[in-house]
Amino acid sequence: MAEPAPLARGDGVFRRTRRIEARHIDELGHVNNVVWVRFVVELAGAHSASVGLDLATLRERIGGLWIVHRHEVDYHRPAGLGEEIVEETWISEMRGALSLRHARFTRREDGVQLVTALTRWAFVDAVRLRPRRIPPQVRDAFPQLGAGGPP
Questions:
Q1: Strand residue runs (E) in the chain
Q2: pLDDT (tens digit, 9 = 90+) per residue, 10-68?
Q3: What is the pTM of this model?
Q4: How far is CA 24 from each of CA 44, 48, 72, 97, rounded to the nearest angstrom?
Q5: Is residue 79 within 8 Å of residue 114, measured between CB atoms?
Q6: Among the four 65, 131, 137, 147, which has the fewest Cβ within 10 Å?
Q7: CA dist., res. 67 & res. 126, Å (int)
Q8: Contact between residue 54 and residue 64 where contact means Cβ atoms under 8 Å apart
Q9: What CATH number has the domain bearing residue 93?
Q10: Domain with 42 in it
């Protein structure tokens, strides 16, 4: 199993590529909707790890972690076996204990948009699992691109 490959960053958007494998495909011959949600969550984790805030660091050093409050997923086009996709994610807002994170998946070959998602993440205390204000060192690690998203 090949790990997704990171792409260049710098505009506040975390990007990487992924090749669609047989395990991602359902009986209809395309990426299953549950798999897309897993891709959204994995992409958020990879972005966080890329800025030094992997799950272990958040839990042990900061005493908090992220949990999903709500996913909104729009399926635009299917993706099939062997296709290479570009995965992108960015933060539009962080306030209190909530973060709004966007994800976009496009086919690398032609740039066709496949799936978009908006996830509302809650930052919680790692022990009590109760919401807590996002600490400055976490908030400052992620540029907030606003509702308009990346340029």
A1: 5-6, 14-19, 64-75, 84-95, 98-107, 113-125
A2: 578 999 999 999 999 999 999 999 999 999 999 999 999 999 999 999 999 999 999 99
A3: 0.89
A4: 18, 23, 20, 33
A5: yes
A6: 147
A7: 10
A8: no
A9: 3.10.129.10
A10: 5-139
